[in-house]
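Aggregate trends can hide what the representation actually does to any particular protein. In the encoding step, the backbone of a single protein was reduced to a row of integers, each denoting a local shape. The record that follows shows the chain in one-letter code together with its fold in token form.

***
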Amino acid sequence: MRSKWMIASVALFLLAAVSGYAQTTREMRITVPFQFGIHDQVMPAGDYLVSQVSTNGLTRFAVQSAEDRHAVYFLGNAISRNDMPGPSSAVFHRYGTSYFLADIWWGGRFASGVDVPESKTESELANTARLSHPGRVVLLASR
């Protein structure tokens, strides 16, 4: 009887530990036809998997090339829109021929996304270009 109680206690403990580690994931695939910057890294044109992973209250984001050659992981600020939700998309700031990932929007019933922190390179370019509002390019996710 005592061993059954011990086994049941250990099983409940493990279940609680695993549920505390539960992850929620959102993903989208996007084709970027130009080279772009994110967190002072230059990413080549190509197909990317953008994902959001929440673990124990911490939300991280990843932009990873389809070939697994290039990846950037970062923390971002949650954002929302008051208008009607649209499809999943990625928004880029454009300064001449330079592009920087700015926002990621998740399609579905709710208009939510993430604001990608501005990199040092983008900030310097914006100051040099003296633009109060950079050009915006929106790419829709393929899924």
